[in-house]
Amino acid sequence: MTEVGRLLGSGKEAEVFEYGALALKLYRPTASKASSFREAANLSILEWLALPTPKVHAVGAFDGRWGVLMDRAPSSRFADQFVATAGKAPLEDMAQLHRRIHEKSGEGLPSLMARLSARIRRAEGLDPSSRKRLLYQLESLPDGDRVCHGDFHPWNIHGSGQEAMIVDWLDACCGNPLADVCRTYLLLLHALPDRAMGYAEAYARIAEVEVGAILAWLPVIAAARLTEGVADENDELLRLAEANGYH
């Protein structure tokens, strides 16, 4: 039997280890069994869409933790290039990859609108009037039927060019691509604030949409993130949830 090898990466939800020639994503002991099956199901749907995603080989319990056995991503991280390289090139490379995801039908994946609504309803820190306003605002935004990654950022891209592989598909869903781009904008606003608007602008140029149409999602995307246990971001998220979609 193959043994769990060295640690390849670690995040809030899971750790990724070598497992022979493959990669084993082990969810943390506090995670539900459903998480591993949900990500595996999402990847199984995406496999048929010819997107650069890992192929699932097995789901099961490994050393007392639930995990997904999948193709191993390239060792090089796109984030290293993204952080180190100034200018528009890395922004446009990432936006092109994001756009490639959004060209595919999201049939079979969970509804993004339903997920955002559920998270806004249980988000802490929102007063009743703000919650009602945000839910009304969400209903006024256009739904969609495209694949949305749900957590697309430079650290979830490995390799580059034709060798790029996108990982961490637990939150994949079906919805409006602009909501997915706004989620990326929000993540960059916290991690790399000087790149956030540049990314939104790069995607807008490629997709031929207005930046304002992306940022119109910002209050509801920020409110939904309040459920994710990122305490150091909560004050800023509450402020953005009260904004008009621009930063």
Provide structural commentary.
The protein contains ten helices and nine strands. It is α+β, with helices and mostly antiparallel strands and 247 residues long. It has two domains: 7-70, Phosphorylase Kinase, domain 1 (2-Layer Sandwich), CATH 3.30.200.20; 78-241, Alpha-Beta Complex (Aminoglycoside 3'-phosphotransferase, Chain: A, domain 2). It has a five-stranded antiparallel sheet, covered by helices on one side. The chain has a two-stranded antiparallel ribbon with strand order 6-9. Strands 7-8 form a two-stranded antiparallel sheet. Helix 3 packs across helix 7 (193-207), helix 4 packs antiparallel against helix 5 and helix 4 (112-122) packs across helix 9 (218-225). The longest helix is centred in the first third of the chain and has 15 residues, at 33-47. It is globular. The termini are far apart.
CATH architect. name of the largest domain: Alpha-Beta Complex
Quick one: overall form? Answer: globular
Report helical residue fraction: 40-55%
CATH class of the largest domain: Alpha Beta
Question: So how many helices?
Answer: 10
Distance between the termini: 52 Å
Q: Tell me the total number of β-strands.
A: 9
What is the CATH homology-level superfamily of the largest domain?
Aminoglycoside phosphotransferase (APH), C-terminal lobe
Give Rg in angstroms: 18 Å
Global mean pLDDT: 94
Residue stretches low in confidence (pLDDT < 50, at least 5 long) are: none
What count of domains describes the coordinates? 2
Structural class: alpha+beta
Estimated share of beta-strand residues = 15-25%
- Largest sheet descriptor: 5 strands, antiparallel
Secondary-structure element sequence?
Answer: EEEHEEHHHHEEEEHHHHH
Question: What order do the strands of the largest sheet run in, or round the barrel if closed?
Answer: 1-2-3-5-4
